[in-house]
Automatic annotation (TrEMBL):
SUPFAM superfamilies: Periplasmic binding protein-like II. It is found in: Cell envelope. SMART domains: PBPb. Residues 38-268 form the Solute-binding protein family 3/N-terminal domain. Coiled coil: none annotated. This is ABC transporter substrate-binding protein. Pfam families: SBP_bac_3. Keywords: Signal. PROSITE patterns: SBP_BACTERIAL_3 (PS01039). Gene3D superfamilies: Periplasmic binding protein-like II (3.40.190.10). PANTHER family: ARGININE-BINDING EXTRACELLULAR PROTEIN ARTP (PTHR35936:SF17), MEMBRANE-BOUND LYTIC MUREIN TRANSGLYCOSYLASE F (PTHR35936). GO terms for cellular component: cell envelope.
Amino acid sequence: MNTSLRFREWFTLAVGIVALHAPLSHAQTTAPSIGKSTLVAAIVPNYPPFEYKDPATDKLMGFDVDLGEALAAKLGVKLEWQETSFDQMMSALTTKRVDVILSGMTDLPERRGAVNFLDYITTGPQFYTMKARAGEFATMDALCGKTVGTSRRTSFVNDAAKWSDEHCVKAGKPPVKVVGTDGSSDARMQLRQNRIDAAVQGGETLPYQNSIEQNAYAPIGQPFLSQYTALGMSKDNAALNTALTNAFNQLIADGTYQKILAKWGLQQHAVPKALVNAGT
């Protein structure tokens, strides 16, 4: 066999080997291995526009649902939603019954004992009241001495109480009476029934509620804290933490994140990049 023929055979073999390995290399770049083909996500579908069920079809909908599906697609895995209660989400993650929490959870330092948070949207507790009563609350200090409801399952109960201590009690005014409710929808019902004077929920969710309830609610001032809504990840799964962080940055880079934000009217609450445990 002459040298020229031998070289051509060697070159053909080399090209074949490169072609065989190229798809695998590409897959590893775009979808880091997380050691499983299905990702299980905990969700409590009662917080629109983040997660809720379509009344007509009972199908899960919302920003978190779309974001979760997009992340799973980047990772090359199937996403399985596991409905649970807010009280059970953390234990479901730490006992490995689910892989992630994707359900409008706020990144708070006291929740980071066994959980890492991938912060994906800005948020902040917002006081609001019925539009018909907006004139009673021209300034936020008009809340002093009033009854305010908010979901007992969130940090908003303590947040509102701390705001009252700082802005009412220290000023010699009567404190806000903070009432824990059975979720945000219960707070809105009590507000409509005049059982409470005002309520608190994430400021980014109020425009959606107004869009489906004929602008029934009026914000009181601005959100009184700056926080992040986040995806919860187990601290003992570094590979999944890294994979999800990279996948989220890819969604930002290719414009998917921005499209999902726009779909749910949340463009003003975008983060510029993946943030981990950035909440204060």
